[in-house]
Amino acid sequence: MTFTSFTKQLLFSITIAGLLMTCDTAKEQLPNNTDQTTSDTAGAHNSDREFTTAPDFTLRTMGGEEFTLSDQQGRVVVLNFWATWCAPCRKEIPDFMELHEELKDDGVLFAGISLDEEGWEKVRPYAEDMGINYPIMVDDGGVSRKYGPIRTIPTTFIINKKGQVEYVAPGMLTKDKLQPILEKLAAR
């Protein structure tokens, strides 16, 4: 199964409508879902379950450094696709900043990939005003293709320490929902 077909199957497999806010990035809106995961977020984790390896990529961060996903193996990576014009994206960033600060010593890393068409011209001033404390990048078009298509933003991929996509969450995430998942993955 290719990652794209895996993602499509995943995005349509678990539907709990009406609990998330999203911004539409395409003409077709995916259904609102609270949590589209490859494992049960409320129940016990099935450690025998196989997960798909997260597609690797390299992008430049706002600070000019190269960020390569495969270099992050051994950490839990919260990979968030977002845009400055997306209200739910803007609303979840403060929670992400708090969690990044609280959990970075436990091996959790947040990374944001902006889908703003205007690129750094829009992203840099917004990220500086917000004081975003985790790596921010602008998609070159290739990353969202590898993970998508990304039709709803925000969309967040939670990648385990082995570099595998363990959770996919289209829509806004809150600290209360995300923290227990990250603590569980960081402890493994």
From TrEMBL:
GO terms for molecular function: antioxidant activity; oxidoreductase activity. The keyword Transmembrane helix does not apply. Residues 30-50 are annotated as: Disordered. Keywords: Redox-active center. The keyword Lipid biosynthesis does not apply. InterPro entries: AhpC/TSA, Thioredoxin-like_sf, Thioredoxin_CS, Thioredoxin_domain, Thioredoxin_ResA/DsbE_sf. PROSITE patterns: THIOREDOXIN_1 (PS00194), THIOREDOXIN_2 (PS51352). SUPFAM superfamilies: Thioredoxin-like (SSF52833). This is Peroxiredoxin. It comes from Fodinibius roseus.
